[in-house]
Write a structure and sequence with these properties.
Order of helices and strands: HEEEHHEHEHHEHEHEEEHHHEEEHEEEH
Radius of gyration: 22 Å
Strand content: 15-25%
Strand order of the largest sheet: 4-10-9-8-7-5-6
Shape: globular
Helix content: 25-40%
Distance between the termini: 39 Å
Oligomer: single chain
Largest sheet: 7 strands, mixed
Structural class: alpha/beta
Number of strands: 16
Length: 449
């Protein structure tokens, strides 16, 4: 491997000097310096490989040769302002359209998931002529100010909740208000949205949209209960609002059985707006909003032109097309189903062995392992989860991170080329760490260490 210009200590010192300290590193106490990546592996400055269970952005694998080839070829030919006529943007829109329900046929290309969600918010508010938005508790929809305002995960730590933002309970059947023993959790959670809309109307307000991640990620790798979205969409549309599905984390086949996360809610379910981002460009900044002709026409009718200088540029769309080709040619959806099922099965066996594992959930290569100190009380084992992540990195060179309101859920959203052998290794290592904790009677969340 080529010698680095800077030693790790120098790189870290310069980062501390020049980069805003709110931009945190993974493993901030002892960060990994990554200089190269291939597939599902990251390589540090000494050439040591790390298994990547984190990078859902690098959807088809780090530095995939087909993606690099498409990017270089188009960059060598042309990259320009998106307001010039070019084939790539329309060919890419056509390919995306083939993966979506028929009524979603108008596309706006942007550069990030945050930009996509901000535009979705504008579309909804312009179409309905109302401002208010309903979101789920613990939701995160992006880093723009407009999106911080509709992301309880962020605004609860900042200026607080705006009067036009309304928060519905997270449909978490493990630790939410309606759990796995409820006869119809989808309907019960949908009714909480219905009740919230009634409260909004009593205040003399009207809603523009219901925003939801198709599988809430920051909320703890949540799979929404069956029937939830259809009923919520019914209530929201009856109130004059639109249903926005945020697919920034979960789109492009991560769930395996379907191309989009919202399709898990049934073949007849269709959102009014779908946002997408992270996996689209395999690490290249590319994102999009898909919506209906009616909503797009209302947006056009305001008389204000919308343009995005780089959104949908020739290089971005060439990369987007290449990503779709790789997903199809390498059967990455099939791989997500096979490997994801295998990973969940292994984790469930681990759950039977280790009392600290409270829940295993997920679909495809979107999986969560929730750690608890008490299975009956479902008390979050936050420190233990952090300890497992630390040891996986230091002892096994496996990169995993935590999520959920209490940061006690180990999350798995690896590149889609992740293999069954990778899953075997990760679970063996977690087993070893948890066994070691049990053997040494370590109870991190009780301050024993």
């Amino acid at each position: 491997m080529a010698e680095e210009k800077l030693k790790k200590e120098e790189t870290l010192a310069m980062r501390l000097r020049f980069i805003g300290q709110s931009c945190r590193l993974f493993y901030s106490e002892d960060p990994v310096k990554i200089v190269k990546a291939r597939g599902q592996y990251l390589f540090d400055e000494n050439g040591k490989p790390y298994l990547d269970c984190i990078s859902n952005v690098h959807h088809v694998g780090h530095c995939h040769p087909a993606i690099t080839k498409a990017a270089v070829a188009q960059m060598d030919l042309l990259n320009t302002n998106s307001r010039f006529l070019h084939d790539n943007i329309v060919l890419y829109a056509d390919r995306l359209a083939s993966t979506l329900p028929e009524k979603l046929r108008v596309f706006y290309f942007v550069n990030s998931g945050s930009e996509a969600n901000d535009l979705a918010l504008r579309l909804a508010q312009q179409y309905t002529q109302h401002e208010d938005v309903v979101v789920l508790d613990h939701a995160y929809h992006g880093h723009l100010k407009s999106l911080i305002d509709i992301s309880p995960y962020k605004f609860r730590k900042l200026a607080g909740q705006k009067e036009w933002v309304h928060v519905a309970p997270l449909p978490d059947t493990y630790r939410g208000i309606y759990q796995e023993d409820h006869p119809s959790p989808g309907q019960a959670y949908a009714d909480t949205v219905k009740n919230l809309i009634e409260e909004i109307h009593q205040k003399g307000r009207e809603i523009s949209a219901f925003f939801v991640e198709s599988l809430p990620s920051v909320g703890g790798q949540i799979v929404l209960p069956e029937g939830y979205c259809s009923k919520v969409a019914e209530y929201v549309r009856s109130a004059g609002g639109v249903f926005v599905a945020d697919e920034v984390q979960t789109g492009f086949g991560r769930v395996g059985s379907h191309f989009w996360g919202f399709q898990l809610q049934g073949e007849n379910f269709c959102p009014d707006i779908v946002t997408m981002g992270k996996p689209m460009g395999n690490g290249h900044p590319l994102a999009c909003v898909a919506t209906t002709k009616e909503i797009a026409e209302a947006f056009t009718a305001n008389g204000v032109e919308y343009f995005n200088t780089f959104g949908g540029n020739p290089v971005s769309c060439a990369i987007g097309l290449a990503v779709l080709d790789v997903i199809e040619n390498e059967d990455l959806r099939g791989n997500a189903t096979r490997v994801g099922t295998h990973l969940k099965d292994l984790l469930k066996k681990l759950q039977a062995k280790h009392e600290i594992i409270g829940d295993v959930r997920g679909v495809g290569l979107f999986v969560g392992l929730e750690l608890v100190t008490d299975r009956q009380k479902r008390t979050p084992a936050t420190k233990t989860a952090a300890w497992v992540v630390k040891r996986l990195k230091e002892e096994d060179r496996i990169c995993v991170s935590t999520d959920g309101p209490w940061e006690n859920v180990l999350k798995f959203k690896p590149p889609m080329c992740f293999s069954s052998e990778n899953a075997d290794l990760v679970v063996q290592c977690i087993d070893r760490i948890l066994t070691d904790m049990t053997d040494n009677n370590l109870k991190l969340d009780n301050e024993d260490i």
